[in-house]
Amino acid sequence: MNSRQKGKRGELEAAAALRAAGYESRRGQQFKGTADSPDVVSVLPFHIEVKLRERVNLHEAMDQAESEAPCGKAPVIYHRKNRTEPLLTMKFSDWIELVKVVHPPK
Description:
- The chain is an alpha+beta fold and about 110 residues long.
- It has helices spanning about 5-20, 60-70, 90-100; strands spanning about 25, 40, 45-50, 75-80, 85-90.
């Protein structure tokens, strides 16, 4: 499978997982290749970068997501090795803001 097909498969997978959780989402329009064409378009306040690889350079992927993320959208990496459950990687500063909403500090 070539990398373009694998990328498409990962983007469709991530969008389907969000829809299954109840969030409207779809694969981005990759032919544009600009910041307004993320890997996954959703109603959530995240810019989602998808990587289906056995080895992911997370810092490189985060740099890409940050550079493409529109203002107000936190960059998130959806990544998965073959035959494993997907993982999400995000910056601690974005994660702690989510935690504060669910479990406010005392």
